[in-house]
Amino acid sequence: MNKLPTTIVTGFLGSGKTTLLRHLLTEANGRRLAVIVNEFGEVGVDGELLRQCSVGCDEDPSAATPLYELANGCLCCTVQEEFVPVLQTLVERRERIDHILIETSGLALPKPLVQAFQWPEIRANCTVDAVVAMVDGPAVLSGQFADDPAAIDQQRREDPNLDHDRPLRELFEDQLSAADLVIVSKVDELGPGDFERVREQIARFTPPSVKVIAATRGVLPFDVVLGLQRASEDRIDERHTHHDEDHEEGKEHSHELFDTIVVRPPLLERAALLRGLEAVVREHEVYRAKGFAAIEGKPMRLVVQGVGRRFDSYFDRAWEGTEKRVTELVFIGSHLDREQVTRTLLGAAGA
User: Among 28, 123, 155, 335, whose Cα sits 20 to 30 Å from the Cα of 143?
Assistant: First the structure.
């Protein structure tokens, strides 16, 4: 009963993990949360957004939500070197923390991370309350994670915006196979009966006991997500994944199929920037785009998030007086070349 409960939030790129965590932090109602963010890329976009939601900052800076950002690639590959020291630090602060939230990168495999909680020095002090898998409802419904590789290849030929290949499908399945709860996001974009069709596809890769629930913009009651008491580390070895097959064959887990680049274009108008981003995802194999932008003639910083050709952008705060106004955009995909992507973006933007 004295173990520190930990919730692991996993999911494919753009599935809504950060949105869910921001909602949980906002609705904590005095519960003391610590957050570990596994950012994949050079710019800690998700980490900075979460810092804005720190609980208790205004009244008592020492009470703010502790945030640890692990920026050295995929957390499942750096469990011992990166994750364990952070967890040990949180254990030392046990009397000031009620719950730990971990947001994995979109490329992370949750099973190795859950297995780290079996290590004696962690097991004695922490438990995995649950593994929560976020799923992009419209993306699943469109067939991005279809089981038939031939169908994926056909979709890629017919629509250059659909970047489907076998490794992405297997990653999706492995994240579901480790889940204790699945949350389908963007249900407001689904039509009648679509949610049930998405639920049926998810059920192919999850145990019967795993519940699948719907969410719009990450808004769910706090107690629906936290306090599930699954002790996932006790049963994770029974969950089969594609990663297990690689392990049996002596292969090393690798992300060589994914490229992450950062592009820093000059000051642009908002419409020009979005026009350039749309051209990049249309002409290159981009799975996710995100970043902060300085917009010509605007004192506010623009946040940009995109999956496929779906882009969200909003002004989150004013640039601080001593802050350098620059645009930093992270692109995650396959066969990405920084110079080529930059040329595409600036050419479409008219810069």
Answer: 335
